[in-house]
Amino acid sequence: PRVVVLISGNGSNLQALIDAQSYDELGGEIVAVVSNKADAYGLKRARDAGIEAVALPHQEYESREAYDGALIKVIERHEPDLIALAGFMRILTPIFVQRFFGRLLNIHPSLLPAYQGLNTHARALADGAREHGASVHFVTEELDGGPVALQAVVNIAADDTEATLKEKVQAREHLIYPIAVRWFLEGRLQLVGDDVTFDDTPL
Ligand code: GRF
């Protein structure tokens, strides 16, 4: 199975997927990485791993629809079974989401449905939350609103700061994203209607 990963920045989650692939634990192959930012460090991670790295800067398109049309073309050239969003910081149009519906996963730094959107760590701390974490979810037209596939919880300590909390959550992201991708590629995790279904037959 073939995976295209979309990024905008550092690409530490991309790296976790690349590492899983190198240990034969991804269940498929990352065939391309696409970034809307030409200077994203994740593009270098892709090249270093011998993966095709594509910069598709959004500034060069006059509308969201035009950009997403171009993005669809690039993605479809690679015939992916799965498109994994890994820190891709753009809102996708309904046309994009519909085109790949059921084949789009995202990683989000909160225990969804809590803290959709940005600045999740600061908001959890400001609320005095006791727990925080990371979620892998299917992408639907509702931003950060699609059904959750897998979550990891971290406890918030009294002395946690935004930076320490982010670090703890990211460590969990790097653990759960490769697992969710593998389950999806093995057909054990699916979006059926509005719900996630698991084939939980023991391996
Ligand atoms: C991660 O925290 C992810 O949850 C969010 O964006 C961040 C991307 O980090 N969607 P990286 O580029 O994978 O290091």
TrEMBL record:
Per the UniProt record, the lineage of the source organism begins with: Bacteria, Pseudomonadati, Pseudomonadota, Gammaproteobacteria, Oceanospirillales
Q: Formyl transferase N-terminal domain: which residues?
A: 2-180
Reactions the enzyme catalyzes: N(1)-(5-phospho-beta-D-ribosyl)glycinamide + (6R)-10-formyltetrahydrofolate = N(2)-formyl-N(1)-(5-phospho-beta-D-ribosyl)glycinamide + (6S)-5,6,7,8-tetrahydrofolate + H(+)
**Protein name per its UniProtKB record:** Phosphoribosylglycinamide formyltransferase
Q: What range of the full-length protein does this chain span? A: 21 to 223 of 245
Enzyme Commission code(s) on record = 2.1.2.2
Q: What is this protein's function per UniProt? A: Catalyzes the transfer of a formyl group from 10-formyltetrahydrofolate to 5-phospho-ribosyl-glycinamide (GAR), producing 5-phospho-ribosyl-N-formylglycinamide (FGAR) and tetrahydrofolate.
UniProt-annotated site: Raises pKa of active site His, residues: 144
Which pathway does this polypeptide act in?
A: Purine metabolism; IMP biosynthesis via de novo pathway; N(2)-formyl-N(1)-(5-phospho-D-ribosyl)glycinamide from N(1)-(5-phospho-D-ribosyl)glycinamide (10-formyl THF route): step 1/1
Q: Which family does it belong to?
A: Belongs to the GART family.
Q: List cellular component terms (GO).
A: cytosol
Any idea which UniProt keywords this protein has? Purine biosynthesis, Transferase
Question: What GO terms in the biological process aspect are recorded for it?
Answer: 'de novo' IMP biosynthetic process
For this chain, one GO molecular function annotation is: phosphoribosylglycinamide formyltransferase activity
Residues forming the catalytic site = 108
* Gene this chain is encoded by: purN
Which annotated residues bind N(1)-(5-phospho-beta-D-ribosyl)glycinamide? Answer: 11-13
